[in-house]
């Protein structure tokens, strides 16, 4: 069975830019999975640092209103990997999931770490590149012209371990 993981779509990240296109694609994915009765699991990242936009006791740590209503299962995490010290593996096992689709924030951290961790645990992994987003820019990494989503997608694709698709390719293959 397949499942969709929606990672860290929280106010503290979404409100840092215009992520309307990625959020629209995430919502389309969620609707596809729910229509077919496949699990949709949301992850929430919590930080202990009060300066963080995802500080555990702040509005920033709450799921963003655009997708919050779809969140039937919400798991909490404190590291980039959605598997480390969480109940994700147990939830996936109880649902019989063997194929995990990845979407959410931040492309180069939580989405990538989770995709690699899922592969390491034996899941087939599909990373929906344009249904991920990041608050970081080429300036963050001091790498002029860097397209973070494309770079991460290319690295994961070249690994030949993780399937990387954009939403239209996902529809063509899986719908």
From TrEMBL:
GO terms for molecular function: hydrolase activity. Gene3D superfamilies: Isochorismatase-like. The keyword Lipoprotein does not apply. Signal peptide: none annotated. Keywords: Hydrolase. InterPro entries: Isochorismatase-like_dom, Isochorismatase-like_hydrls, Isochorismatase-like_sf. Residues 3-156 form the Isochorismatase-like domain. The keyword S-adenosyl-L-methionine does not apply. Belongs to the isochorismatase family. This is Isochorismatase. It comes from Pullulanibacillus pueri.
